[in-house]
DNA sequence: CCGGATCCTGGTCGATACTG
DNA sequence: CAGTATCGACCAGGATCCGG
């Protein structure tokens, strides 16, 4: 017997109740800078660094986008923000446990890319050859 | 001794040579519909279905976006497209091995969301309360 | 040093209408 | 049925300037 497809809303990704959350997460870390910030922070001593430091670590990012992306990550509990009342101002960001815990799952993708990306590139070349 | 940071280009995500590829992949599956299509196809018999079938499975998607997303996935070697010269036209799409192989790594994210998403939500509420 | 305020541009996506 | 064509809204993100 063929099982009838239950109506799944676009939020039910994977038929999973957290589908919407999954899509949100992918959208977030799929944006232009988030993943770079997370990785950059993860490589700093104590997974911690100040604004200008992160800025220098990530070539091409503008101050605006750095601020914005950090805010989003802070809002999501991935990083903390600590302001030191000095002159000149100093602000330090640090990866939270939550943020660090994302590095694990990410490794799955990294491995996949390592083993399969060449296939994707070949597929593209073949496809574009038309 | 403190190890001096090598200049890493924005393409060197994770200090990994495939960094650009990783970002590309995340951007692709982080877009609005790709992940839904992959999952939808993976649940069909033989990971295969026709255009209208997929369309009905994914509420809210427009014909335009369905076509576009399928094209992208086809170009990346994630799905195949087979046209049957009949009237009315029939076109079937099928997940490739490559496409299926992505489901594994994805599971890591799914699990992460399952165990950690509530933390994200709590962080957001706390943050927004200002 | 950090980051807010503005302005602007290109790209993504939805709506709609039309074809082989 | 399975698309293509066209238009327009919206928004991510870049450039730039200013301010505590």
Q: Flag low-confidence runs of chain A.
A: 1-7
Q: In percent terms, what proportion of residues of chain A is strand?
A: 5-15%
Work out the helicity level of chain A. Answer: 40-55%
Helix count of chain A?
Answer: 6
Give the largest interface pair and sizes.
A-B, 56 and 57 residues
What is the residue-mean pLDDT of chain A, rounded to a whole number? 89
Indicate the CATH architecture of chain A.
Answer: Orthogonal Bundle
Domain module tally of chain A? 1
> What's the CATH C level of chain A?
Mainly Alpha
Report the structural category of chain A. Answer: mainly alpha
Care to count the β-strands of chain A? 3
Q: Distance between termini of chain A?
A: 42 Å
Q: What kind of assembly state do the chains in view correspond to?
A: homodimer
CATH homologous superfamily of chain A - what is it?
A: Winged helix-like DNA-binding domain superfamily/Winged helix DNA-binding domain
Gross morphology of chain A is: globular
The CATH topology of chain A is given as Arc Repressor Mutant, subunit A
Written overview of the protein:
The structure is a homodimer of 130-residue chains. Chain A is mainly α. Chain A has a single domain, classed as Arc Repressor Mutant, subunit A (Orthogonal Bundle), CATH 1.10.10. Chain A has six helices and three strands. A three-stranded antiparallel sheet of chain A has the order 1-3-2. Chain A is globular, with a radius of gyration of 19 Å. Chains A and B meet through helix 1, helix 2 and helix 6 of A and helix 1, helix 2 and helix 6 of B. The first copy, chain A, binds a DNA duplex (20 and 20 nucleotides) through helix 3 and helix 4.
């Amino acid at each position: 017997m063929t099982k009838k497809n239950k109506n799944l809303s676009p939020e039910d990704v994977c038929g999973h109740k957290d589908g919407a959350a999954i899509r949100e997460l992918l959208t977030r870390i799929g944006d232009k800078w988030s993943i770079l910030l997370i990785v950059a922070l993860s490589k700093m001593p104590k997974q911690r660094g100040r604004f200008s430091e992160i800025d220098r670590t990530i070539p091409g990012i503008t101050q605006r986008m750095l601020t914005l992306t950090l805010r989003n990550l802070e809002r999501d509990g991935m990083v903390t923000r600590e302001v030191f009342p000095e002159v000149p101002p100093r602000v330090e960001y640090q990866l939270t446990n939550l943020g660090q815990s994302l590095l694990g799952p990410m490794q799955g993708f990294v491995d996949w890319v390592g083993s399969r990306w060449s296939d994707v590139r070949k597929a593209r070349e073949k496809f574009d050859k038309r």
